[in-house]
């Protein structure tokens, strides 16, 4: 393996997990775009919308695209010259093809335009990144076929510390500070640190973040349910049951970014994914994600008449640096969100294996369908070299799966457990 390659921390994976995230099947000659666009919160914007079936883009998620339709190609060429921003909305699987009322702006990071000699038209390959959530107010179809939408940029609401009004600040000098706070570092650098009252409290270890609950009508466990630090730690523990380790760059970011990363990696159906995208607070989003991680243990076929168990959560693992799920586009331009698993049951293989435009370089893919209903589920990937680990794994479409509760039944009126 070349110097600088990144191996997985999973001992069962020797594969360079940075390769899938690079989307090399799009080509290595994509032109990088500099500069970033940030729209004002609560502002109304007019954006070109791109409806994608089975895709709910999350802020921070990478979205690869291959566009062939002349209207879509011309739209992308125009926005590249402007602010490089378009709106991605989920297209419902219905005859009317309505779009969801919640979407995410996508900023184009790199692209390449090619002339397809077979169809005598220009095509565009690009990589974009989800940026900001928005609410669709109204839509209209232009004469060139482009769907335009009037949208409102949704703000991210940060809740105040619930104990600020009840905490007795006169006792702060007796309270131990977390080791990472600036106040603790200032005390540590003092020359007479051994004589300071604060240092003595540090040694005694009296710090209790929720001691203000003693002066309120609610017990401390109520406030602990809304503490972002505790929520992040509990989610990390639950992710270990999914064989998923959180990347270091995601740990260092804010709870808002972490909540988006978890939402992008949970194998949920479109309904629950849109539910998470519509929440305006990182605390509520983290609480719902924790509830889902605790309750779901198996992924089933999404066809209600089939409902066949396909994947157990203990068999799911990260084949990409992006996490449990990765977003990829096939040569026909159809976008898939893929969940990788060591094992899968109830699947049938179709046709021969192929390495053409493999999303995982070094692996050949074979189409897999459900043995119960025959619907397309994903692909089986087999290593072309003996040294690669795992030698085989399954990459299944999130849109073809449905998470099942521990009780084995699904509630259409699902709500997070508080």
UniProtKB/TrEMBL annotation:
Show where the Lon N-terminal domain sits. 47-297
Under SUPFAM superfamilies, the record lists: PUA domain-like
Keyword annotations from UniProtKB, A to Z: Cytoplasm, Metal-binding, Nucleus, Ubl conjugation, Ubl conjugation pathway, Zinc
Note the InterPro entries from the entry. CULT, Lon_prtase_N, Lon_prtase_N_sf, PUA-like_sf, Yippee/Mis18/Cereblon
| Ranges of biased composition (kind: Polar residues) | 10-20
Domain of life, per the record?
A: Eukaryota
**Principal location listed in the UniProt entry:** cytoplasm
What are the CULT domain coordinates in residue numbering? 296-405
Matching entries from Pfam families are given as: LON_substr_bdg, Yippee-Mis18
**Stretches for region Disordered:** 1-20
Q: Where in the cell is it found?
A: Cytoplasm; Nucleus
Pathway, per record = Protein modification; protein ubiquitination
> What family is it from?
Belongs to the CRBN family.
Q: What does this protein do?
A: Substrate recognition component of a DCX (DDB1-CUL4-X-box) E3 protein ligase complex that mediates the ubiquitination and subsequent proteasomal degradation of target proteins. Has an essential role in mediating growth by negatively regulating insulin signaling. It also has a role in maintaining presynaptic function in the neuromuscular junction synapses of third-instar larvae.
- Subunit architecture: Likely a component of a DCX (DDB1-CUL4-X-box) protein ligase complex. May interact with pic/DDB1.
Query: What name does UniProt use for this protein?
Result: Protein cereblon
């Amino acid at each position: 393996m070349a110097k600088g390659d990144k191996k997985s921390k999973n001992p069962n994976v020797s594969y360079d997990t940075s390769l899938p995230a690079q989307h090399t099947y799009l080509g290595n000659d994509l032109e990088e775009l500099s500069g970033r666009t940030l729209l004002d919160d609560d502002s109304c914007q007019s954006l070109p919308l791109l409806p994608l079936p089975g895709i709910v883009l999350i802020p921070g998620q990478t979205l690869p695209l291959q566009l062939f339709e002349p209207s879509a190609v011309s739209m992308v060429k125009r926005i590249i010259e402007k602010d490089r921003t378009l709106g991605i909305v989920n297209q419902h699987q219905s005859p009317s093809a309505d779009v969801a009322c919640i979407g995410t702006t996508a900023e184009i990071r790199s692209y390449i335009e090619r002339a397809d000699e077979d169809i005598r038209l220009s095509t565009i390959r690009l990589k974009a990144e989800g940026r900001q959530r928005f609410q669709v107010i109204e839509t209209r179809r232009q004469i060139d076929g482009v769907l335009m939408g009037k949208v409102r940029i949704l703000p991210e609401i940060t809740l105040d510390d619930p104990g600020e009004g009840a905490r007795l600040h006169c006792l702060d000098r007796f309270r131990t500070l977390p080791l990472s706070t600036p106040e603790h570092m200032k005390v540590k650098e003092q020359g007479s640190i051994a004589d300071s009252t604060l240092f003595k409290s540090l040694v005694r270890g009296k710090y209790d973040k929720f001691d203000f609950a003693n002066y309120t009508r609610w017990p401390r466990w109520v406030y602990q349910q809304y503490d972002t630090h505790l929520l992040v730690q509990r989610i990390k523990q639950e992710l270990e049951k999914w064989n998923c380790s959180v990347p270091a760059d995601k740990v260092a970011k804010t709870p808002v970014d972490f909540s988006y990363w978890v939402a992008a990696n949970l194998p949920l159906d479109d309904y629950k994914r849109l539910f998470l995208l519509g929440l305006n607070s990182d605390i509520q989003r983290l609480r719902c994600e924790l509830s889902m991680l605790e309750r779901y243990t198996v992924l089933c076929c999404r066809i209600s008449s089939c409902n066949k168990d396909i994947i157990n959560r203990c068999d799911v693992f990260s084949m990409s640096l992006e996490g449990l799920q990765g977003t990829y586009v096939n040569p026909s331009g159809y976008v898939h969100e893929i969940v990788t698993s060591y094992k899968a049951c109830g699947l049938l293989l179709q046709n021969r294996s192929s390495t053409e435009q493999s999303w995982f370089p070094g692996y050949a893919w074979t189409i897999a369908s459900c043995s119960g209903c025959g619907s397309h589920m994903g692909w089986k990937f087999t290593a072309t070299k003996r040294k690669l680990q795992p030698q085989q794994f399954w990459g299944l479409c999130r849109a073809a799966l449905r998470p099942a509760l521990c009780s084995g039944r699904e509630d259409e009126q699902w709500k997070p457990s508080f």
